[in-house]
Design brief:
binds flavin-adenine dinucleotide; five-stranded antiparallel beta sheet; alpha/beta; 31 strands; 12 helices; about 575 residues; seven-stranded mixed beta sheet
Length: about 575
């Protein structure tokens, strides 16, 4: 008898063969997993409908399979219905059967913290179980970093076409289809999520799809497909964070969205109010401004992107003015009201006066709160940090209960994907006996607006606050040939240096390629390199990286192309 591939997921017709879990002559029972497939929508396990012996394996790991392909020959008979899915497949990551799992490390949450920790743990030889409630990749891949940057690309391209006359190009007929923008984003996300499933699979990580609940050191995952109990020597909590809305009248209106919902909006609003001028709020402000929306940002603090240096903020504020992004700072939003025509009036208090702005939609970008629910941390003797808004950890990422580690947004130290991932690596290496330490001296941040921003290490604001002496070197992109050819001469490279020993302490880049170029400074700061060490390093011409060189030169004897 042949076992065929009857369904993958949704309308998918092809998948890649992952780990084949049975061999010729192996006895299998109905419900046993035969092979893992990797599809664009995630991992799929094909299970046996039969009790019997496998007589032939007709597929090979790494090859593609299509619907109706024969996968195995089996000598046996149909098993009981409760043991096998009727269609001979199971979509998802595990089967609805009782499982008692014992492993070295269990990880709760498959975001950039959890999945990276799982891969590193497997590399170090641990047996690993990863439990994910929604989709592998977490916020970053599904509703955060990657989707927003896919939108940024569409928005840039649209804007470049609008402004292409400057480059001697005329395009008379162009338009944008937001449905396709969202579909493109979904395609990229699906590819990446599938890729993570593949990596976990080849690393031998056991992935359970469901919500993990911990009671007295035992993790249970129970739903239609899974009834598993997981015992582990160590447990890593990587449950991430969720968007919050202000607790004000109107916050629950249908068109008051968080970033998660906005990323699936298949129309371009004529107008949009963004409550919150932090990184997420400002990225969306630039995206929708480029797409043609009339954007107003209302920020509670005295400035947008408040944590950044004033010269960085001023460059961005100038751009907002040029582009027509309206900014209201020092403004406290206190209610949102929907008009008869379906528009949203956002009311805020500024200079002790009531003010309003109107938009088709409101984006609430007012922060994210760690997912602490369902964990019952008290019962596990796991302490929260001093503010009570994240799990407290030491530099090895261990919590107050030494069996448990916590990584990523749940710790609320720095809510960035690469921080979560690195914390995951540190946690796992400590569990496996290596003495890694997490430090935050050289954590880069990237803001994908126009011009882009990259920052790392000490800022001027922080130096002044902590009374740290420093000197700066600055080079403007207006004096960089490559930036001018790109028509992106706004912004600068700024470096902060210790005047005593010349070591580089921090940097800010505002300008073309800033989010990639900041890696140069991350490396220099992390390795305590002195500013003059690069005086004789040759940078390719013409590149925007020359501005990094010139900023470093300007700390000492002076930049060549700027006085
Ligand atoms: P998450 O990515 O949130 O993953 C946690 C996972 O745990 C989730 O998948 C969740 O379903 C799962 N989970 C929760 N509870 C349970 C449970 N009980 N059982 C099983 N599973 C559970 N960061 C950057 O570095 N660069 C960017 O450009 C960037 N852009 C962003 C843009 C937006 C719009 C947003 C919202 C965020 C952005 N971030 C960015 C932040 C980044 O997404 C997060 O810092 C990162 O995802 C945190 O990783 P994490 O693994 O800690 O948590």
């Amino acid at each position: 008898m042949e076992i065929k591939l009857l369904k993958i997921s949704g309308h998918e017709k092809t998948a890649k063969v992952g780990k084949i879990t049975v061999t010729v002559n192996q006895e299998v029972k109905a419900g046993d997993v035969l092979v893992n497939l990797e599809s664009k929508k995630g991992n799929v396990q094909v299970v046996s409908e039969y009790n019997g012996k496998i007589t032939k394996v007709l597929i090979e790991e790494g090859n593609s399979v299509n619907i109706n392909d024969s996968l195995f020959d089996i000598d046996g008979e149909k098993g009981k219905a409760e043991k096998a899915e009727k269609k001979g497949y199971s979509f998802g990551l595990a089967k609805a059967k009782k499982e008692d799992i014992n492993c070295d490390i269990a990880i709760i949450g498959g975001g950039p913290g959890g999945y990276v920790a799982a891969i590193r743990a497997a590399q170090l030889g641990a047996s690993v179980t990863l439990i994910e409630e929604k989709r592998l990749g977490g916020t970053c891949l599904n509703n955060g970093c990657i989707p927003t940057k896919s939108f940024v690309k569409s928005a840039h391209l649209f804007e470049e076409i609008k402004n292409c006359q400057e480059f001697g190009i005329s395009v008379s007929d162009y338009s944008i289809d937001m449905g396709q923008v969202v579909d493109r984003k979904d395609g990229i996300v699906d590819t990446l999520v599938g890729g993570i499933g593949h990596l976990l699979n080849i690393g031998g990580v056991k992935v359970l799809e469901g919500k993990a609940i911990i009671t007295e050191d035992l993790i249970t995952v129970k739903n239609k497909k899974i009834d598993a109990k997981v015992e582990a020597k160590n447990i890593i909590i990587a449950t991430g964070s969720s968007p919050v809305k202000l607790n004000i009248a109107g916050a629950d209106l249908e068109k008051v969205l968080t970033s998660t919902e906005l990323l699936d909006l298949k129309e371009i609003p004529k107008s949009m109010t963004i409550v919150g001028g932090g990184i997420i709020g400002m990225e969306f402000a630039f995206i929708f401004n480029s797409l043609g929306s009339n954007v107003t940002v209302v920020e509670f603090l005295d400035d947008i992107l408040f944590a950044l240096d004033t010269d960085v903020i001023e460059t961005i504020k100038y751009q907002c003015e040029e582009r027509g992004i309206k900014l209201h700072t020092s403004s406290r939003v206190d209610q949102i009201v929907e008009t008869d025509k379906g528009q949203l009036i956002t009311q805020f208090i500024k200079d002790e006066e009531l003010q309003y702005c109107v938009g088709d939609y409101v984006l609430m970008a007012v922060g994210r709160k760690p997912n602490l629910d369902n964990l019952d941390l008290d019962q596990l003797n796991i302490n929260l940090n001093e503010k009570g808004n994240g799990v407290a950890v030491d530099e090895s990422m261990k919590t107050s209960n030494e069996k448990y580690y916590a990584i990523g947004d749940i710790t609320n130290i720095i809510q960035l994907a690469h921080v979560a991932s690195h914390q995951g690596v540190v946690a796992v290496e400590n569990i496996m006996g290596e003495k890694s330490k997490m430090h935050y001296d050289a954590v880069p941040s990237a803001v994908f607006i126009s011009p882009e921003i990259g920052i790392v290490g000490l800022s001027e604001k922080e130096a002044e606050h902590k009374d740290i002496t420093y000197k700066t070197g600055v080079f403007p992109f207006a004096a960089n040939g490559k930036a001018l050819t790109l028509n992106e001469g706004e912004g600068f490279v700024k470096v902060l240096v210790n005047p005593e020993d010349q070591t580089i302490l921090g940097a800010a880049i505002v300008g073309p390629g800033a989010t990639d170029m900041i890696a140069n400074f991350t490396y220099l700061i992390d390795n305590k390199v002195k500013a003059n060490a690069l005086a004789h390093t040759i940078f390719a011409h013409p590149t925007t990286a020359e501005a990094v060189h010139e900023a470093l030169l300007s700390v000492g004897e002076g930049a060549i192309h700027f006085a």
